[in-house]
Every structure is written in structure tokens, then in C-alpha cells.
Amino acid sequence: MTSLKYSRQRECIKSFLLSRYDHPTADTIYINVKKEFPNISLGTVYRNLSLLTELGEIIKISTDGADRFDAHLEPHSHFICRKCRNLLDIHMENEDFINAEAQKNFLGQIEGHTVQYYGICSDCLRK
To answer: What is the pTM of this model?
Structure first.
């Protein structure tokens, strides 16, 4: 396997994602990375997001809108607000029980899971 060539643009994209917890879209990432790399194209951002996802360095979260991205890889679930479309992290003390429960009903080997919860966020409930 050939080693991956270092890319300042890719590192900037990853650093930007690590600084955020709001799960930005590719367009938001592009607008912000463009501040440091004015000549970067949206296609380059998409290609790097795809590569980082393939390498397991970030997570792509598919929603009914634009895909969102998360560089925080510790096990956690996500909540999507039905009103404002905000995507929030949900951290639980231990999510391993989900894998164990699924394993009881599956002949293969469960190695992980993703969970998305839907409802109305606290900000929308206050409005």
C-alpha cells in the first residue's frame, strides 16, 4: 500500500472539524477553510472529506439534508432536531450494551454501531 502524501489543506479541514461540535456541512467547511487557502475549490474539500472518511479519521453523518461531518471519534450518538435541523452529540456513560443486545439476535460479529435520535431540541422547545 502506498503512503498518503501530506496535504496542508487536508490537515486544515481535519483541524477545523476537530475544533467544532456542530457537525458542519461540506459547504460550511469550504467557507472556513477558504480563509486559510483562498484558492481551494469545493471539489477539493469534498475529495478530502471523502478520503478522511475512508481512512476513518472523520465520520460522515447522512441526514435528510446535506451530509454533516464529525472528527470526534469517541463512541457517541447523535440527535437531529426535527424543527431547526440542528445535529447534536449525545454522550452516554456506556453504549456497549447496544452491541451486546444486537449480538444476541445476530449470527455475525457486531463490531460497532451508529445511532441517530430524532425529536425537538431544548432551544426549539423553549420557543
So the answer is: 0.86
